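Subject: Sulfotransferase

B.,
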Amino acid sequence: MSLEEMKDLHLEEKYLQPETKEVNGILMTKMISDNWDKIWNFQAKPDDLLIATYAKAGTTWTQEIVDMIQNDGDLQKCQRANTFDRHPFIEWALPPPLSSGLDLANKMPSPRTLKTHLPVQMLPPSFWKENAKIIYVARNAKDCLVSYYHFSRMNKMVPDPGSWEEYVETFKAGKVLWGSWYDHVKGWWHAKDQHRILYLFYEDMKEDPRREIRKILKFLEKEVSEEVLDKIIHHTSFEVMKENPMANYTTLPTSIMDHSISPFMRRGMPGDWKNYFTVAQNEDFDKDYERKMAGSTLTFRTAL
Ligand code: PPS
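Prediction pasted inline below.
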């Protein structure tokens, strides 16, 4: 649906800078909250593949890698649609007649690849029951925060982040959509020992994409030639994806995502947080981080 058609339907006020409403103590858009029963009762299938992440952790990157693998490196096939249409975002609810993630997923023939940002305790239970494969990608908190801040400035479908200083506190308190980063990464880390979950790190993918893509291949029980692997690495590099309209979210109207404020494909590297945190903010952040992550075996690299 074009922006003009959306305007005709007067839908904009319903989805731009949306109201929020908690579900089980986790901040969500009001649309997600209002549709929560349907989302919770989503029927997963055994051959579904779910890409689960905290927002801004490398979801789109992983989606492109997986799609390239599933299509044996066929670039044309991976150009068939926007990322968000290739892989339904299961909890993303929009007012009709716009398609919600559930509608897209229910219409999609199997095998499906799906996306979620849900914290582990809120994943529809059918995923566990059907033993669907899940790839979880985690990214260090500081880079996630910076990326989420800029994304919230340019994307009118999520709440306004306020000033940088305000946002640092909002993020630490977990009062952002999909809740606390700390609980999210720890919750999924714990779950990986009980379920078919491949837990990856953004920083590892950046350091050695070949090694990490091989892990995904093994998990998906797929094999590709070295030539195809090279092609996948190239096509899913930040520089190439930044120019790929089917992956960089530039096909959305600027009233939804305004890339002149900040591009979706922004910096694409670990350590960019150093350009934003003051020394004092960093010290405070580290102290709070120690408290929130105490007792966890999960460790992150904040630079390469
Ligand atoms: S979303 O909206 O939650 O689905 O966003 P998500 O895709 O998880 O995260 C967006 C950030 O990932 C960066 N990105 C990449 N980094 C490295 N390589 C590749 N290929 C790549 N593709 C996307 C993107 O630039 C966002 O991070 P920042 O730090 O803002 O640049």
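The CA atoms of residues 138 and 185 lie 6 Å apart.

T.
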